[in-house]
Amino acid sequence: MENNLKKQLEGISAITVTPFSNKNGHVDVRKVKENVRFLVDNDIKVIVPCGNTGEYYSLTLEECETVTKTTLQVVEKQASVLVGVGHDTQTAIKQSLFAQENGASGVMIHQPVHPHIKEEGLINYYKEIANAIDIDVVLYVKSNTLTINGYKELQKVKNIVGIKYSLPNVLEFGKIVEELKNWDITWVCGLAESWAPFFYRAGGKGFTSGLVNVTTKKSQELLQYLQECDNSSILKLWNDIRPFEELRAKYEDGNNVAVVKQAMNILFGNYGEVRPPVNYINSEEEKELRRILSDWGLI
Q1: Environment class of 254 (CB within 10 Å of its CB; exposed 0-12, middle 13-18, buried 19+)
Q2: What is the pLDDT of residues 78-130, one digit of tens each?
Q3: β-sheet bridge partners, residue 160
Q4: Are 4 and 82 in contact (CB under 8 A)?
Q5: Could you tell me if 194 and 242 are in contact, meaning their C-beta atoms sit under 8 angstroms apart?
Q6: pLDDT value of position 3
Q7: Fewest beta carbons less than 10 Å away: which of 138, 182, 205, 211?
Q8: What percent of the chain has pLDDT over 90?
Q9: What is the DSSP track for the chain?
């Protein structure tokens, strides 16, 4: 089955978790397979290993390769696999080539973590990585470094097919999309279900999700309602999902990964702890999480 990543980005991009074994803290390959199989069996068409929900920056390069290869083996062309890459340029290129050689549809280039960068340097970083591979590229934008002129420079890079926009500024997002309306890419809401309705109105055509690792139904229903412009259903479902996403958003998104992983521990057995600098949720937050899951009829 041939997958058109650019088109599939108009749906849900599932950012998978990275399960760790309690015995030795290593990546639990069996649980990686279980997570990916759950998503594929529930008709999710874009699988993103080594993303932020996958604790990318706590993984060694060897662990990234393990997660990437395992994910691709499970998917077997039933969906598009978009592999998260990053760090220094040469490391990102090495990871991108590994993804390409093992059959990935594309790579998602993480927002660089260096605190002091300029637009020209960021553009060069993206270009070097994208030009080193033949598969598709999605840029993960989480800062205001890029101006309209910067985006226009990146428009020249032929294999960029999407932008994961993860800034909570819908007005600016709408301006950028309108200014670049002739750029044949997919603009993706990178702030998950809680922001998806607003970004959809401003030109976003898909959204990323950590929630789908817990339950795919609500995310798929939201996508359907967005596509149908069913505003009353969107609002009702948005309010249903909101407590889960607000719990993830605490401490300036410090709970983002831990809430998803603990929900999976509760529902599906041991997916392990989170690694520093991510931290476990506290007992009161776990009670709230269990209440949400109970309200949803999952426990």
Answers
A1: middle
A2: 999 999 999 999 999 999 999 999 999 999 999 998 889 999 999 999 999 99
A3: 137
A4: no
A5: yes
A6: 63
A7: 182
A8: 95
A9: ----HHHHTTSEEEE----B-TTTS-B-HHHHHHHHHHHHHTT--EEETTSTTTTGGGS-HHHHHHHHHHHHHHHTTSSEEEEEE-SSHHHHHHHHHHHHHTT-SEEEEPPP--SS--HHHHHHHHHHHHHT-SSEEEEEE-SS---HHHHHHHTT-TTEEEEEE--S-HHHHHHHHHHTTTS-SEEEETTHHHHHHHHHHTT--EEEESGGGT-SHHHHHHHHHHHHT-HHHHHHHHHHHHHHHHHHHHHHHTTHHHHHHHHHHHHHS----PPTTS----HHHHHHHHHHHHHTT--
Q: Is residue 119 part of a domain?
A: yes
From CA 218, how far away is CA 221, in angstroms rounded?
Answer: 5
Q: Which residues have CB under 8 Å from 131's CB, separation 6+? A: 157
pLDDT in tens, 139-180: 999 999 999 999 999 999 999 999 999 999 999 999 999 999
Structural domain contains residue 243? no
The answer to whether residue 239 is domain-embedded is: no
Please report, as a single letter, which amino acid is at residue 235.
Answer: L
> What is the pTM assigned to this prediction?
0.96
173 falls within a domain: yes
**CATH classification of the domain holding 28:** 3.20.20.70
pLDDT tens sequence across 254-270: 999 999 999 999 999 99
Mean of all residue pLDDT scores within the chain: 96
Question: What are 92's two structure tokens?
Answer: 């990102």
Domains contained in the chain, number: 1
